[in-house]
Design a protein that fits this description.
By secondary structure, the protein is α+β, with helices and mostly antiparallel strands. The chain is about 40% helix and about 15% strand.
């Protein structure tokens, strides 16, 4: 007989399925196709992948439509630039003819200077900046395209979830192709916008030059008509004004027939000018102190000595911007006009090109 107590008999009670937690390992693997658990749901993933690829295709279609619109707009800008060049050529020829008709000096200038250049040939039609070919988007329902499907470095094509791996591989390949296409579309759009901005700047500059040339032609035509006794127009008084340089705030005046720029004058009327106008947008400035007209001398200097409003005393301003305008000496450069620059305390007539205009003073 043993003196040790006999072990107590334990009754077996079935565990409560709501509170019992089993610590034993699962009998099946989570990656086993026959198991009851799977960490990935194939159907929702396929739907999300398809939605992403369709969104990429829609973005590519939008990008290609933008490229087509930019190509059409670029062609319109090319035509506008070509028309501006042709109009500038026609105005230049008209100016040359009027210069020869205006005086013997203008005729001689036409003889010694080359003729206007020929009209440039029309620009070739712009090639359409089409987007790259659309990527073929795999569809998990109607078939898929898997680039490089015969290469399987990880050995995933023979596993229990080979179909899921192939599906994800096809999705990544499609999204990579769509990303490359969108990147190419973005680069093409940026290049097209840059070229159009440059073309717009050229058109703006050509339009500004054309406006200056048209005003010059009007001046020449007005001079020719002014020389005809039956067509001449009498000058008309506009206003009294002071002429002040915007950069330095110095006022334009005349002392002893000398043109000066000064902050003030001992004589109240030395800085007061009477503005007169006549044909061809010609403007005359008569100093109230001396009674002389501002004009260009025979040596090209700006002086205030003329007693009459002649051709050498013709000026031009932008009447729409009287508080911020440039001055043009109409007689300078064989009558083509010269932009006025302010040097120290005097005025200098430069050329009539765009660089001279950019450096001209504002009044």
């Amino acid at each position: 007989l043993s003196s040790e107590p006999a072990p107590r008999r334990q009754s077996h009670t079935p565990p409560d399925p709501q509170t019992h937690v089993s610590m034993s390992p699962p009998t099946t693997s989570p990656w086993d196709t026959a198991g009851t658990r799977q960490l990935l749901s194939v159907a929702p993933a396929a739907a999300d992948n398809l939605a992403a690829r369709r969104a990429a295709a829609a973005a590519s279609e939008t990008g290609r439509a933008v490229l087509e619109a930019l190509a059409t707009q670029g062609e319109q800008l090319d035509r506008a630039e070509e028309r501006a060049e042709h109009a500038s050529f026609a105005v230049g020829r008209s100016n040359r003819v009027l210069r020869g008709m205006g005086s013997w000096g203008g005729w001689f200038a036409n003889v010694v200077t080359p003729d206007a250049p020929a009209v440039p040939p029309p620009m070739p039609p712009r090639t359409s900046s089409a987007a790259p070919a659309a990527a073929k988007i795999p569809d998990p329902v109607h078939g898929r395209v898997v680039p490089g499907d015969d290469v399987d470095p990880l050995g995933l094509s023979s596993g229990p979830h080979a179909a899921l791996y192939r599906e994800q591989d096809a999705h990544l390949a499609a999204m990579s192709a769509a990303t490359r296409e969108l990147s190419g579309i973005g680069v093409t759009i940026g290049s097209a916008l840059t070229s159009q901005v440059e073309a717009t700047g050229r058109i703006a500059a050509a339009t500004e030059r054309l406006e200056d040339d048209v005003r010059m032609v009007n001046r020449r035509a007005g001079r020719i008509l002014q020389g005809k006794w039956f067509k001449g127009e009498k000058r008309r008084f506009l206003m009294y004004a002071t002429v002040r340089q915007n950069e330095t705030q110095l006022m334009l005046g005349s002392m002893n027939d000398v043109v000066v720029l000064s902050a003030s004058s001992p004589h109240a009327t030395a800085n007061v000018w009477a503005l007169w106008a006549r044909q061809g947008n010609a403007l005359g400035l008569r100093n109230e102190l001396t009674g002389r007209w501002l004009g260009q001398g025979f040596l090209g200097d700006i002086q205030c000595r003329a007693s009459e409003f002649g051709r050498r005393e013709e000026w031009e301003i932008d009447e729409q911007k009287m508080s911020h305008t440039r001055l043009i000496c109409a007689n300078a450069n064989w009558g083509t006009g010269g932009w006025i620059h302010a040097n120290a305390d005097t005025l200098v007539a430069k050329g009539n090109d765009s660089s001279s205009k950019d450096g001209a003073a504002f009044w």
